[in-house]
Amino acid sequence: MRLLHMSDTHLGYSAYSRIDENGLNVRESDVYRSFSNVIDLAIEEKVDAVVHSGDLFDSVRPTNRAISQAVDGIIKLREVDLPFVVIAGNHSTPRLRETGSVFRVLEHLENVIPIYRSRCETHEVGDARITGLPHCIDEASQERAIASFRPDEPGGRYHNVGLLHGMVGISLPGMGEANEMRFPDSILDSGFDYLGLGHFHGHKPLAENAVYAGATERFSFNEAGDPKGVVLVDLERRSWEFREIPVRDMTAFRIDCARLDPTEILTVTLNMLQGGRLEGKIVKVIFEGISYGSYRTLDLIRLKLETKDALHVVFDPRIAADEGSAPVVSGGFSALPSEFATFMDTAPVERLDKKRLREMGERYLQEVDAE
């Protein structure tokens, strides 16, 4: 039996203000395209089931468009009789029980098994028994779920597959989200033939049979250069293969400014950017060890013109340690608005319009910097 393991698709995610030819946010379209490519790959590879280890949606209240994209993909799987098993991640789990879950909609689709009720569930899919441990709404539920997370029939005629969403052990950094779940390393020894992990956006095997599939798009500069894709799992052979998918380029340039004056910094930066082929890319330029004075006099307008073909550009001044922490920058460019935008791109937000909140915060911080 073969599976396609995907994770952290974050349908509904959007960022920046660029609109595509269909009037949609470009980054939102990128995310939908990656999801669609994975669905097509599952069909092309003729796997027996598709499993998703959390954060199908980017928020607990996804837009109609995000829901429609998910349903369209699931229907394509149904047309070729492919089951879809998905657990809830932290982005799609409400903080309050009365909020309800969008996963209730998915229960009405005949080939979908959504696992989201803050407890472990085991379902039989072909020759596999799949046990999902979704993101839990509170600590007590999490403790009960972890205690019950084990194969339903170890050593029997079924292949045992486990799905969970969170950080395992302490070997990897977390995603910086206050509500992320953490699991002890011992969970890797719970006896599953394959353990599909979600939440960490990088592709990372933790054991021979335990793998973070990684996100299907890049959502922060921490992921710049990371390959994105899915895991194809052969349960009969007890083997797996990472399959990369194409995503938008995200590039970070780092300039060591410690011994350079503003003119030299500009020259070095322009030379680096001109060799970078920036069209359509998401770009960050990090000015490492720059002084307040040098960054204030840096020709940012020239740099913006040089990077006009990029989808989005962030200038990130890392002020020299002996000059304090964050700079006050003229011209509407500053570290704090950029850091806030990066934070909001990944932060789970409930009950509010995330895009509007991000735009309001950036505008406020830029106004403060200009004073």
Quick synopsis:
This protein is of the alpha/beta class and 371 residues long. Helix content is 28%, strand content 23%.
Explained architecture:
With 371 residues, this protein is α/β, with parallel strands linked by helices. It has two domains: 2-244, Purple Acid Phosphatase, chain A, domain 2, CATH 3.60.21; 250-370, no CATH class. 28% of the residues lie in helices and 23% in strands. It is built from nine helices and 17 strands. Helix 1 (26-45) links the parallel strand 1 and strand 2 (49-52). Helix 1 runs parallel beside helix 2 and helix 8 (335-346) runs antiparallel to helix 9.
Write the layout of secondary structure elements.
Elements: E1 2-6, H1 26-45, E2 49-52, H2 64-79, E3 84-87, H3 103-106, E4 112-115, E5 121-125, E6 128-133, H4 139-147, E7 159-165, E8 167-168, E9 182-183, E10 194-198, E11 204-207, E12 210-212, E13 229-234, E14 239-244, E15 250-256, H5 262-274, E16 282-290, H6 292-297, H7 300-306, E17 312-319, H8 335-346, H9 354-370
Parallel strand pairs: 1-2, 2-3, 3-4, 6-7, 7-10, 8-9, 10-12, 15-16, 16-17
Antiparallel strand pairs: 1-13, 5-6, 11-12, 13-14
Helix pairs in contact: 1-2, 8-9
